[in-house]
Amino acid sequence: MGTYTKLEGKMSAKIHELQGQVAYYEGKFKEVDQLRRLDMNEHEHLRHRIQGLEDSRDDSRATQLRLQQEIATTRSALIEQEATVVQRDKTIAYLESENRHIMDNYHKRAEEYQATSEAQRQQKEELESTIALLEEASRHHMQHDAERDRVVEQLRIELCAVQAARDDCEAQLAALGLDAQDSAQTVARLTREVADAKAATTLLRESADEERRAWAQYEDEKERLVVGTQNLLTRHDKLLDWSCRRLDRARDLQLQQIVFLTWNGTTQRAKNAHMALQLQRCEAALSRFTHELTATRESLGQLRKSVAELSPSSTLSTAIVQACHQAVLERDVAYRYIDSLTLSNQEKSAQLHQLHTDLTLLRTKNELDQCSGSDKRALLQRDIEHLHNVVDGSKAAVRRQQMLVYRLCGARAQAKATLLATVFFYTWRDVHQRRTLGGWCNELLANTGSPGTQRVPEWHLMDYTPRATLRRLTLRFAGPFATSTDE
Question: Which residue spans adopt a coiled-coil conformation according to this UniProt entry (predicted)?
Fold first, then answer.
């Protein structure tokens, strides 16, 4: 009975000991189950975070593609503006040459008009002097005709008297019977006088015919001079009409050119406003990326601290070094692209400045043509100040756009490097735990109570204290990458 009592006591003690071990192992199993659930939750959380990082990477790529498309659009717009500027410069040069040609023709026509006016004035004076001479000659001819008519009338009277005297003489000779010699001499003398009278009459008739012919020639010359004067006046009127029409056409063409250049300037200002709006959008995107970059840098600092406390892996370290080297190469490519874009922006700014300068000079020229001396000086001073303001604004815009592109490319390179480092870190952490702590094995857990078995690794008992605590890690992103976790 005592033996059974002792055996019962020993068995009760062993049962209590086994019950204590069972309770201990049940607690351990519960702890293992809890830790396993925590590990699974952590793996699930890491998977979600990696998925979020991949989504962020995809969004970054989409944003990068969109920015590249906007840059390509900007480049095409710059190319179109360059072509427009070249065409406008050619048009301005052609218009200036046409304006010079028109002004030269105008000066030539003015000189020809002055020479023609001087020649017409001289010809008119000559015509007036010729008309005065002709009138004086006509007056002399009329006086000579009156004198001739008077002499002819006297000669006719004398001829009638001679004829009457001859008749009287013949009657007296017939009546008195004079001798033949005296009669012959008297008849001869009278015959000579009659012949002289006939010759004088013939000369007077010829002189009258010559006077009539001269008068007809004078009338013809006068008519010809009148017709020539009328023709010259008609040509003068036509020349004035042609010059006025030509000047009107030149003025209309110049006004059309001014209107076209004004419209072109308005279009260019609208394009500049559109480009300024795009620049504001890019600046807004830059501020958003800057905020995201700041949050990523903070998270990256925590990750770097955690990585510094862990043992490095040669394979993953090499992969990380290669990835960082690739990120550096991409950053260099981005910097080269920044330089090329900066040069194109500088060329665009120079072309825009040249356009504003040409338009301002043309407006100033048109205003100066219509203003006085003091107004001209005021307008010149105002245009000089406007040109200085345009140059300063163009330089500031180029600097802002260059800084914007530089920040965007830097943010892109930094975000990609951060993403690669984060993915490599979580991959390395999983591999490092399995390599240093071993894999999961249920047989070792079943044989832990048997004597002679080795000590179970801490990985299996889940009773280890890691060298770095990674269970409280917060990654803050803004915008499309917004994922915030806090275990």
Answer: 103-137
Distance of CA 176 to the CA centre of its chain: 131
Taking the chain, what is the end-to-end CA distance rounded to the nearest angstrom? Answer: 62
pLDDT in tens, the chain (487 residues): 566 567 667 767 776 776 777 777 777 777 777 777 887 787 787 778 777 777 777 787 777 778 778 777 877 777 887 788 788 778 777 877 877 777 787 778 778 777 877 877 887 787 777 777 777 877 777 787 777 777 777 777 877 877 777 777 667 666 665 555 665 676 677 777 777 777 777 777 787 778 778 778 878 887 888 787 778 778 877 877 787 777 777 777 777 777 777 787 777 778 777 877 877 777 777 777 777 777 777 776 676 666 555 544 445 445 555 655 666 676 666 666 666 666 666 666 666 666 666 666 666 666 656 655 566 666 666 766 766 676 677 667 767 776 776 676 666 667 666 666 666 666 666 666 556 655 544 444 445 444 444 444 443 333 333 333 333 333 333 333 333 333 3
> The pTM is what?
0.25
